[in-house]
Amino acid sequence: MEPSRLSVCGTVVRCVAPILFGAMLAACSTVARDPAQVHDAGRQASTLELRQQQTGTAYRQLEQVRFDLKLAEQDWLNANAAYQRTQKSADELKQQANAAHQALLAAQAREAQARAAYEQAMKAVDEAYQSGTASEKR
Fold first, then answer.
1. Helices then strands, each counted (H, E), the chain
2. Cα 43 to chain center, whole Å?
3. Over the stretch 72-122, which tens digit does the pLDDT of each residue have?
4. On the CB side of 48, how many CA atoms lie within 13 Å of its CA?
5. Would you list the domain boundaries of the chain?
6. Is the Cα dihedral 10, 16, 18, 20 positive or negative?
7. Who contacts 33 (Cβ-Cβ below 8 Å, separation ≥6)?
8. Cα(32)–Cα(28) distance, rounded to whole angstroms?
9. The pLDDT of residue 131
């Protein structure tokens, strides 16, 4: 036996009707909120918007700080490289100064030896002169 169309439609309506009715009630209740709920929803939306703006501002600050960090790192690398070059030059200059100081000390020692030799030669001349004049006086 074939069920009549009317009974099938009735069954569908009985099954679907509560679902449709519930959906309509939900839609009506969303639209017909009381003013306090509408104000609360508006406040939540503005709070959300404010938090999103604060997040955007914080992100831009983070990006700026990251950029500043990269600049600071590069400045440090450049300064450190310059310092090391300068330190190398200073070390080379220190070696040159030490070598020059050693040469000065050696020259002073040679000058002292030469002066001593000169004084000894002058003394020998003076003694020879003294002995020559002494023999003439006799």
1. 2, 0
2. 42
3. 999 999 999 999 999 999 999 999 999 999 999 999 999 999 999 999 999
4. 6
5. 65-132
6. negative
7. 41
8. 6
9. 87
